[in-house]
Amino acid sequence: MEIGSKLTNSWLDSIVDSFNGVDSDRRRQFNRIGTATRAVIESVVASKAPTEQLGLIADAIEKVAEDIGRFPSGRVYEGFAEAANTGGNGGFMDFSPISGAANPIAPPVELSLSSDPDGSPIVVGVVTFGSAYEGPPGSVHGGHIAAAFDEVLGLAQSMSGSPGMTARLSVNYRKPTPLGEPLTFVARIVKKEGKKVFTEGKCYFGDILTAEADALFISVDFSKLAQLAGERERTNDGQKPQL
Length: 243
Ligand SMILES: CCCCCCCCCCCC(=O)SCCNC(=O)CCNC(=O)[C@H](O)C(C)(C)COP(=O)(O)OP(=O)(O)OC[C@H]1O[C@@H](n2cnc3c(N)ncnc32)[C@H](O)[C@@H]1OP(=O)(O)O
What we know:
Elements: H1 9-20, H2 25-46, H3 51-69, E1 110-115, E2 121-128, H4 142-158, E3 164-173, E4 182-193, E5 196-205, E6 208-219, H5 222-234
Antiparallel strand pairs: 1-2, 2-4, 3-6, 4-5, 5-6
The structure holds dodecyl-COA.
Residues 82-83, 150-151, 154-155, 158, 163, 165-168, 194-196, 216, 218, 220 line the site of dodecyl-COA.
């Protein structure tokens, strides 16, 4: 099995270094906003507040939305959100919808790089999904589990040295995945054949395997990502790029 024929220490090092980012004030404020907005989302979906209080809270949130809406938004990052940072050399993927601390819709999944006992590189994602992610009672919605897999498998495939986009993602749900409990996702490259990078991953609650996934990524020329970013720049905020 050939894993990452182009894998170099500098490639891995650059990813590891960029996780940490710079402790800039701008990054701290973005992360504070992300954390506070997540807390609001969690409380909103699970709140037993009296209706009158809900009205006051809605007034306050509408005011916050109005205040921040006065500033231009939608293009604060270069390139694509997965690899975006909060500016001033913030951390890698700060705005990822899955792992970005500064993105309020991210749970977020905390990513790290590690290795198997046999020394093969793996990606580990640790996350606790709150009430906003409920599917079956007390369990995480399957779509969010799939999204977390896409993220950890996506980072794992990038360790091949020729990262690409998800072409196919398949998830087997083995047991209900609990809400409000720490989960561990583990992802690895299985093999690489030309542009194809095959990956697999598992999700554990403690020792319990709750879900497993495999995915195919197709290495893309970075000019394709540049093209997508360029299309985004040519469209208005929130509109689809023309593919
Ligand atoms: C630093 C960064 C870190 C970044 C870390 C970030 C982690 C997060 C990652 C998140 C990733 C995403 O969510 S990505 C978003 C979701 N995915 C997408 O939007 C992708 C949309 N699809 C596409 O753009 C395209 O279809 C591609 C890029 C996947 C493939 O297009 P292509 O490059 O033109 O591929 P092509 O030459 O036609 O095919 C090459 C080979 O792959 C096969 N192939 C192609 N597509 C498929 C497919 N869907 N299922 C099976 N097989 C396929 C072909 O049959 C062919 O096999 P053969 O004939 O050679 O045998």
